[in-house]
Design brief:
Transferase, Pyrimidine Nucleoside Phosphorylase, Chain A, domain 3, 4-stranded mixed β-sheet, 3 domains, 4-stranded antiparallel β-sheet, single chain, Pyrimidine Nucleoside Phosphorylase, Chain A, domain 2
């Protein structure tokens, strides 16, 4: 044990001093950490060194491969359709996965959507779907694959056998201030996606105040890094950079986002949300080699029917009433003019304070809490007109939510310029 500890110290020193770690060293390190031979304190020191020193291309490739090899790989070869998944780096009002998985399945591909939970002001797909009575996030691999074979889509939690060392590393990064590192973010995301066995992957990399990556240059770097990792592992990969300066759609929360997702599947969704969904769907179909028309699948009801079947297959009742908050509070417009800014970060933090999000992964969320955006950027508003509707189960949460909004709302004399929610595409 003393020899193992000493070896870990040597690797910490090497990375601290800017030296590159070999593939064998990385493989040993992650394996020893997973088995408990390397202590949290030592791995914390190494992660901090990586935050400052980075990982070169060879190190990152070895790090990601070792994370994948720390667990099992799913075999999706028997699904009977081309497989393609999508991953979002997280945003405010981002209910895209709920719409996209059944939509792409309705067009002929299979979508094994392994999703996560929200943390802080960004929502989690599993938290949203758990607002549906009876719906199950955790599925045994055999059941997941059976649903995927039958319906072409499934949204569930990643099993404990997929990249298990990532689960330990993520929890450690969360409490040690080492989340903000492009190599660590990229390897964390891609190790799970590679292990899930999908043939193609589209990354939705959010950019803006409500996103993890606030600046375009950083988002491009992260997107390119993940695309390269995917391609090196034989997964056809591309990325779309999409805007996250204002909430996507009008609903922010859990049950309220499910409602908006269903409305979008029925052809009545907000234009910005529909545009992002259709762009990602087209990219997923292109990468998977499937000739389908996602706009037609929304219009003819086939995507909605597939969603309902998927929810039912996972124990949920698609017709059951969703939770409704006991209390509401309206936020009025501060003046008359154009709604020049509705900041995603502020709205997301307000929803978090209302109970829709969590500070730690183990914390519960309120399925009914959230924010409805009654107006969007570019709308003309009158003074005292309702702009936001805050929803909470506990009235005492409104004060913190209003404080979290801060200066998120700005009304001015000039209409803001309209921008395309899809900024760019990166990859093959």
């Amino acid at each position: 044990m003393a020899d193992q500890a000493h070896a870990a110290v040597n690797l910490i020193r090497a990375k601290r001093d800017g030296l590159a770690l070999t593939s064998d060293q990385i493989r040993w390190l992650l394996g020893a950490y997973l088995s408990g031979e390397v202590a949290d304190e030592q791995m914390s020191a190494l992660l901090m060194a990586i935050c400052f020193r980075g990982l070169d291309d060879a190190e990152l490739r070895a790090w990601t491969t070792a994370m994948v090899e720390s667990g099992e790989r799913l075999d999706l070869s028997g699904v009977g359709r081309p497989t393609v998944d999508k991953h979002s780096t997280g945003g405010v009002g981002d209910k895209v996965s709920l719409i996209l998985a059944p939509l792409v399945a309705a067009c002929g591909a299979a979508v094994p959507q392994l999703s996560g939970r929200g943390l802080g002001h960004t929502g989690g797909t599993l938290d949203k779907l758990e607002a549906i009575p009876g719906w199950r996030a955790s599925l045994p691999p055999a059941e997941m694959i059976a649903i995927l074979r039958r319906l072409g889509c499934v949204i569930c939690a990643a099993g404990p056998g997929l990249a298990p060392v990532d689960r330990q590393l993520y929890a450690l990064r969360d409490v040690t201030g080492t989340v903000e590192s492009v190599p660590l973010i990229a390897s964390s995301i891609m190790s799970k996606k590679i292990a899930e066995g999908t043939g193609a992957l589209v990354l939705d990399v959010k950019v803006g105040s409500g996103a993890f990556m606030r600046e375009l240059a950083g988002a491009r770097l992260l997107a390119q890094t993940m695309v390269t990792l995917g391609e090196e592992e034989g997964v056809r990969t591309s990325a779309l950079l999409t805007r996250m300066d204002t909430p996507l759609g009008r609903a922010v929360g859990n049950a309220v986002e499910v409602e908006e997702a269903v409305a979008t599947l029925a052809g009545h969704g907000p234009p910005d949300l529909a545009e992002v969904v259709l762009a990602l769907a087209a990219e997923m179909l292109r990468l998977s080699g499937v000739d389908g028309d996602p706009a037609a699948a929304l219009a003819d009801g086939s995507a909605l029917a597939r969603y309902r079947d998927m929810i039912a297959a996972q124990g949920g009742d698609p017709d059951a009433p969703l939770p409704v908050a006991r209390h509401t509070r309206v936020v009025p417009a501060p003046g008359t003019g154009w709604l020049a800014r509705l900041d995603a970060h502020g709205v997301g933090h307000a929803a978090w304070r209302l109970g829709a999000g969590r500070a730690r992964k183990e914390h519960p969320v309120s399925p009914a809490a959230g924010v409805l955006c009654l107006a969007k950027e570019g709308d003309w508003v009158e003074e005292e007109q309702p702009l936001l509707e805050l929803r909470a189960d506990d009235e005492s949460r409104f004060a913190a939510a209003l404080a979290a909004l801060g200066d998120a709302i700005e009304v001015g004399p000039e209409r803001p310029s309209q921008t395309d929610p899809v900024i760019d595409r990166i990859g093959m």
